[in-house]
Specification:
The protein has 9 helices and 13 strands. It has about 280 residues and is an alpha/beta fold. The termini are far apart.
Amino acid sequence: MTELLRTGIYQLVEGKHGRFLANPQDLYMGRALIHYGEFSEQEWSLLDQLLRPGMVAIEAGANMGALTVPMARKIGVEGLLYAFEPQLVVFQQLCANLALNDLVNVPAFNAGCGEVSDWMSTIRPDPRTENNFGGYSLQKLARDTPIKIRVERLDDAVDPPRLDLIKADVEGMETQVLKGAAGLIAKFRPLLYLEANKDDAPGIIEHVLSLDYEAWWHLPLLFNPNNHLGVTENLFGNITSKNILCAPVERTLKVGDAPKVTGPEDHPANWATRA
């Protein structure tokens, strides 16, 4: 870590939600924090409405903590946020950002989440080279791989006193995360907030509906014109995240005019072809 700081990889940002070590080579989170003082503020706005002090949440795919920090602040010292991040260098950055913000309510795990507890592999990107550091998926473990990543089944990894929300942004492994949390979901019936990109959405949605949950699309723009630093330049164009908010059918959830997910083949990429 000392070498990384000495070679000038990170910048210290005084952001809207706290202090962050941000990597300017990170095309999305790092760049957004440095230029705007925030990341995906529309996504945070929804999470802010869902969370309350004292709640317990799980974040699978916490990355460097751009949303972990405000989530942990919102639930407060009486709450818990279990944060999982499999990439070692990004995990170190996450822990640094938790420490910079005096957050002691976040048990952090250098691990991925999946259907079973096992080992997987991934590419380890160079933090000195421009990249999307949140865009690397885990792969089956190859015999000669130099990078081994621990994957945990959430039912085995945590034993929370309650569970109010599972947030998962894990590059296509969202369904596996839910299957590995089957016991927790059955016991606590938490809200689910899941990335659902086009290729992965059918399996995710089918599984969510099988749990007797309802789901709604949430499509936050990466660029917030009312950003913390007042920067008008839009670095991200019209890029939106493709997420679904899911609630058990027995719960009344106010979702405003959010489009309801109609089935496994429903995806914003297909809406232009609707009759």
